[in-house]
Amino acid sequence: MSQIDVVKENLIGLNRPELSETLIRLGVPKSKLKMRVEQLWNWIYVRGCRDFWDMSNLAKEFRDLLAQNLTLEVPDCKVRKISVDGTRKYLFKGDNGHEFETVYIPEEGRGTLCVSSQVGCTLNCTFCHTGTQAWVRNLTIAEIVGQIMAVRDDLNEWPKEGSTYKSEQRLISNVVLMGMGEPLYNFENVRDAMKIVMDGDGLSISRRRITLSTAGVVPGIKRAGEEIGCRLAISFHATTDEIRDKIVPINRKWNIATLLDALRNYPRVTNSDRITFEYVMLKNLNDSDEDAHRLVSLIRNIPSKVNLIPFNSWPGSNFERSTPERIANFAQIIYNSGYPSPVRTPRGEDIMAACGQLKSETERLRRKPVSVK
Predict the structure, then answer these.
(1) pLDDT digits (tens, 9 = 90+) for 97-112
(2) Most CB atoms closer than 10 Å: which of 1, 43, 212, 365?
């Protein structure tokens, strides 16, 4: 095979043992292996380096070896849109040319990155724009971690020469797995990506600042608590099986009672690590006082809060947003029952970046699914 045909291995997304194995294959002696792994880890995940030749504390011969055989690639940003409220939406191109979206939401004192886990989605939630897009494939570990790294590139957040990241303001302080796809249907890649993200000597985002949102893939909930340890959010959106079957079809497989049983046994649930119930407010469908009281009854004895999300419209949708008065009344009932019930302020609506609005923009996503490990 000629040099031009050689596919270089991407170091982004490898954990330390995998990085060690790669360096062993390149002939790095065991006596230097631990040092080399830590050097590369620091350059990649602390400094955000993308060029082996910029790794100034590595010998020239070693840098040459790395450059000839390996690469450092994050998803390519094809389109970036900035909302009037400062929200940024990125259309990334990953492996095989498949595209997915990521959203950065700046707030006072914090910045939240909404990360995708799949290209498309299998869940078909009827109020969600992403749900109208056919599932194509799971994102790789490199593509999940790479979303954070690529947005840090855009925000110019990596530490400057002579400084450390911890001494600088964190523009990305929180990560929410609430973008395109169902994270628990790509569990292994999401888990391994988050372990890299949580690594204290790398990207260093605490598990308590990472929230995984699931529509209710019950078998994965316990695993998420045990193997990731992040906070949990549930795309709930209805208080009866009759309505939830229609708008969140996965409920037909794992109904409300089954889901709530799994949540009561979530390994990380405490009063300080509450489960978030996400509830999109849909006019005349799930927004009555009776729904609010029923919701309180359902979540009783589960340390939790309820995020009320005004429905964000998208072309072709058949739903309407509940009125501000109806949302306020709903929130008050929940609050009076002892549960925090913040109403989410829609962000990035003008660029279709608000909750439930993400969808890739190209025809290639309608092609036959491609398997990428």
Answers:
(1) 999 999 999 998 899 9
(2) 212
355 carries an active-site annotation: yes
> pLDDT digits over 49-91, tens only?
999 999 999 999 999 999 999 999 999 999 999 999 999 999 9
56 and 161 together in one domain: no
Task: Provide the pairing of β-strand 174-177 with 210-214.
Answer: parallel
In this structure, the answer to whether residues 292 and 307 fall within a common structural domain is: yes
Which of 252, 236, 174, 196 is CA-nearest to residue 45?
196
Catalytic residue chosen out of the listed positions 101, 143, 157, 182: 101
* One domain, residues 53 and 112: no
Domain that holds residue 49: 3-71
Catalytic residue among 114, 125, 128, 355: 355
DSSP state of 193: H
**pLDDT for the residue numbered 371:** 40
Given a cut of 50, is residue 1 above it in pLDDT?
Answer: no
Judged against a pLDDT cut of 60, whether residue 295 lies above it is answered with yes
> Does the structure show a pLDDT above 50 at 316?
yes
CATH number for the domain harbouring residue 7: 1.10.150.530
Residue 296 tokens read as 């309180």
Round to whole Å and give the CA distance between 78 and 151. Answer: 12
Q: What is the pTM of this model?
A: 0.90
Please give the helix or strand (H or E) that residue 119 lies within, else none.
strand 118-119
Residues 119, 123: Cα–Cα separation, whole Å: 12
| Cβ atoms of 77 and 154 closer than 8 Å | yes
Burial of 140 by CB count in 10 Å (0-12 exposed, 13-18 middle, 19+ buried)?
buried
Please count the helices (runs of H) and the strands (runs of E) in the chain.
10, 13
Given a cut of 70, whether residue 147 has pLDDT beyond it is yes
Report CA 163 to chain centroid distance, whole Å.
28
Tally the domains of the chain: 2
Q: Are residues 29 and 80 in the same domain?
A: no
H runs (alpha helix) in 55-198: 60-69, 141-155, 187-198
